[in-house]
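agent> Task received from the user: take the single chain below, predict its 3D structure, and emit C-alpha cells. No templates, no multimer pairing.
agent> Plan: (1) validate residues, (2) run structure prediction, (3) serialize to C-alpha cells, (4) report one or two observations.
agent> Step 1 OK, no nonstandard residues flagged.
tool_call: predict_structure(input=
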Amino acid sequence: MRPLSGRTVWSALLAGAIWGVVGLALAGRALGAPVWGGVIVAPLIGLVIAFAFRGFRERPPGMRVALALVSVYVASGLFALAAGVADAVRPMPGRIAHAVVIQTVLGVWWGITFTGLLPMLWPLAYLTHSLLGRTEAGSAPEAGK
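)
tool_result: status=success, residues=145
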C-alpha cells in the first residue's frame, strides 16, 4: 500500500482531534482527569487508525462495515490506554500501575459495548473512514498518466 498523502495526514490528525472531543464528552465523567491523557494523544490515534485502515474505500461494503467496527475498538482501546497511563502515573500509594491501565481499557470497551454507545460510534467511524478515503482518493495519481 502506498503511504498516506500530506492531505490525508492532516485530515487524520483533525479527525483524531474531533474524536478526542467525542471521547472527552462520553468518558470525561467516568474517567475523570486522566481522560485528558487520551484527549491529548487523540490526533496521533487518528493518524495511526488512518494508516492502519488505509484503502478503506477500496474494500467491499461488508468489509468496510466490519473494519469500521474494528476501528472503534482499536481506537477506543488506544484512547483508554493513554488515559490509563495518565491515571497510573499519578502518585497514589498501593496501586498496581499496569492493573490501572488494563482496568481503564476494559472499562472503556465495556462502556462502549453495553451502554448503547456502539450504535452511535460505529456509523461515525464508518463516516470518518469514508471521508478519509476521499482524501486518499483525491490525492492519488490519475491512472494512465
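agent> Step 4: summary for the user.
The first helix runs from residue 6 to 31.
agent> Done.
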